[in-house]
Amino acid sequence: MKEGLGVELTERQIQVIKDHKESYSFNELAELTGVNRGVLVGIRKGERTRVSKVTYARLANKLYHFDNSYNAKNELEAVNRVSELREELGLTDHELAEQAGIGIKLIRSVENQYNEPSPATWQKLADFFGVWVGYLVGATDRRVR
């Protein structure tokens, strides 16, 4: 993940994940949270301290005491912004996939918060829409490059 994108996890949040790992396997924890197993392993090993807002939202929604201030109003704007921009252009999800050169399954998973796309995919979407990647992921309200 590029520097500046996503959310830096606090030591307490990393400890919450480690505490949950004591009760669950990585596969169970991934299934519970909807977060990629590799991301969870990286956090547990201390190799990863920054996650996307989608991942942060999933952890906050599923893990007790991960973020006590988090609530449904903090839902990620990234999914809404991709859908919103697609709809502004009057495109269907199939048309967006075809024109942007991204698979339809990936487009749907991004819009429905099922998957966290790679930085390259975020960049491809940002280039297609003519906006900053930070705008797509909700890191900034600055839309136009």
Q: If you had to describe this structure to a student in words, what would you say it looks like?
A:
The protein is mainly alpha-helical. Helix content is 57%, strand content 3%. The two termini are 20 Å apart.
Question: Can I get a quick summary?
Answer:
It contains 9 helices and 2 strands; from the N terminus they run βαααβαααααα. The model is unreliable at about 70-80 (pLDDT under 50). It has a two-stranded antiparallel sheet.
Q: What structural class results from the helix and strand content?
A: mainly alpha
Mean of residue pLDDT values: 80
Report the β-strand fraction as a percent range.
under 5%
Strand order in the sheet with the most strands = 1-2
Series of secondary-structure elements, N-terminal to C-terminal: EHHHEHHHHHH
Question: End-to-end span in angstroms?
Answer: 20 Å
Strand runs, count: 2
Keywords:
145 residues; two-stranded antiparallel sheet
Please describe the topology of this protein.
Layout: E1 7-8, H1 11-23, H2 26-33, H3 37-44, E2 50-51, H4 53-62, H5 77-88, H6 93-100, H7 104-111, H8 119-129, H9 133-136
Antiparallel strand pairs: 1-2
Helix pairs in contact: 6-7
